[in-house]
Specification:
510 residues; Beta Polymerase, domain 2; Poly(a)-polymerase, middle domain; Rossmann fold; 3 domains; 7-stranded mixed sheet; 5-stranded mixed sheet
Length: 510
């Protein structure tokens, strides 16, 4: 299938689907339990992507509608305040379409619970129409069209339109109406009117894009889409038709940005911000500091510093002049906060783009990048980032790239398969490097390799192969921050698996 490479990135993993289903069903049970003695009947129906299964990777939202025979706002709100496992954010005082709405969190999922009443009819009222949206999707979309829904969502997401102006149900109608993602692109490129009205009764205003509520025909699901938005979609459709890699690269960029924003919210100043396996992180940092060997008055750049833990550890106080950069503004705020807590105000933490560094030519003596190059969305961007690093590095200066490599994953997975374990994939938000990339760095930039090694082979074999195999025999799962992993992190390294390698480059004199 076309765009299969992208679908492999944006489609939810099996365990993610199971997590959504489990949390969704648990939420419904919790609501039913809380309202079991409510006077009059109460029906709970999950709507949206959690109901249809058409969600992108890292989906964390559950929407539901509660249908009351007799509705009492005070009682409704009081029960939600006391519901087990539900953390309330707000009750909407004037919700659109529904009688009331509770927004909050349930088991790390964002939850929105709206209210309607059983006397409402879907042919006449928007709230009742919404109640049947999952039924519409199940009736009009076959399972083989789920991929088209995901591609359309990602297409819109890359341009900031999905969620903000075009919701999930509107996307499902688009795919149902036109027959697929490619057909939708055809409509955009042909300049045809985007008008979808399954009810046949839409009487609202003429707008650049119309997708009506399918049963009552009232209102436009995409009423905020304007002519400029439509032109953006048309232009983007042409771009990705001409070059599929643009679609993949843009999607990786969006996914990566979302991933790190979520990490910032979840972990804040915690060390797990950079990676959940802190003992692997410790081993890498000890090794990097030994190889970097910072000297007094050297200018050193951490290219991709996250919340600053590695920067503060690798370059000790007063040993050098240090800068840490990251594209994530929230990460930089956290890094500055951490620097104050650790009394390291000597480090300059700056929001910056690796492709456009605001430093003078030949400014740094040493630059290190730990798992940052692989966070760039394409090989072109990765090479251009190294070119930009070369520009700001002095002649004979050094670049340390400590990152993930696909060849190492292949070797590791071969070992796991031999032990009857499932394969481990590269983190979905990353584009792991490969040995060809190292060759291209040397042929396209002023850097040449002077040393390479993998200090994590023993750790990976023990924690990703041997320990999981042993624990599996006794019905247990490995835990990343366990005592076993801590022990593995201090053992001598044997071999060169190559999943996480350090390459040291020196810049040629011009």
């Amino acid at each position: 299938m076309k765009y299969q490479k992208l679908l492999d990135i944006i489609s939810p993993l099996t365990e993610e689907k199971q997590r959504v289903e489990k949390t969704r069903d648990s939420l419904v049970r919790a609501i039913k339990s809380e309202f079991v003695d409510y006077p009059g009947s109460v029906e709970i129906k999950v709507i949206g992507s959690a109901a249809t299964g058409n969600f992108l990777r890292w989906y964390r939202d559950i929407d539901c509608l509660m249908v009351f025979e007799k509705f009492d706002r005070y009682d409704f709100r009081n029960r939600f305040l006391n519901m087990d496992g539900f953390s309330l954010d707000e009750f909407l005082e004037s919700p659109k379409f529904v009688r009331d709405k509770a927004n909050g969190t349930y088991h790390h999922f964002s939850v929105s619970a709206g209210v309607t009443t059983s006397d409402r009819k879907r042919e006449e009222h928007l709230d009742a129409d919404m109640l049947y949206h999952p039924d519409f999707t199940l009736e009009h979309l076959t399972e083989d069209k789920h991929s088209d829904v995901l591609l359309t969502k990602q297409f819109l997401k890359n341009k900031g339109l999905y969620g903000a102006k075009i919701g999930g149900f509107a996307v499902e109608q688009i795919v149902s109406h036109y027959g697929g993602f490619s057909q939708f692109l055809d409509e955009l490129l042909d300049g045809r009117e985007i008008f979808i009205d399954y009810s046949g009764r839409y009487s609202g205003p003429k707008q650049p894009m119309v997708i009506s509520y399918p049963y009552c025909g009232k209102d436009n699901l995409v009423s905020t889409v304007n002519e400029e938005d439509l032109e953006i979609m048309k232009k983007y459709a042409l771009e990705i038709r001409e070059d599929e890699d643009i679609f993949i690269g843009d999607s990786r960029r969006v996914l990566n940005s979302e991933f790190w924003k979520k990490r910032a919210r979840k972990y804040g100043l915690d060390e797990e911000f950079g990676m959940p396996d802190i003992y692997l992180n410790h081993r890498e940092n000890r090794f990097l500091r030994a190889r970097l060997h910072p000297k007094r008055e050297e200018r050193i750049l951490d290219a991709g510093c996250a919340n600053g833990h590695t920067t503060i550890y690798v370059v000790q106080s007063n040993s050098a002049k240090v800068w840490g950069i990251d594209a994530n503004e929230e990460a930089i705020k956290l890094a500055r906060e951490l620097a104050i807590l650790r009394n390291r105000q000597d480090i300059h933490f700056i929001t910056a783009d690796l492709l456009n560094l605001d430093f003078a030519d030949n400014f740094f003596d040493k630059v290190y990048s730990k798992r940052a190059i692989s966070n760039l969305p394409s090989r072109k961007d990765q090479i251009n980032a190294v070119k930009e690093i070369a520009r700001v590095t002095r002649n004979s200066g050094r670049l340390f790239i400590f990152d993930l490599f696909t060849e190492g994953y292949d070797r590791l997975n071969k070992m796991r398969c031999e032990e009857g374990l499932e394969q481990i994939s590269v983190p979905y938000h990353c584009l792991a490097l490969d040995e060809k990339f190292i060759e291209n760095v040397q042929s396209e930039t002023l850097f040449r390799v002077i040393h390479s090694e993998d200090p994590t082979t023993t750790y990976y074999i023990l924690t990703r192969v041997k320990f999981p195999k042993i624990l599996g025999r006794i019905g247990k799962q490995p835990i990343s921050n366990s005592l076993l992993n801590k022990i593995a992190s201090v053992l001598p390294n044997i071999g060169s698996l190559g999943i996480n390698k350090l390459y040291i480059f020196e810049k040629n004199d011009i």
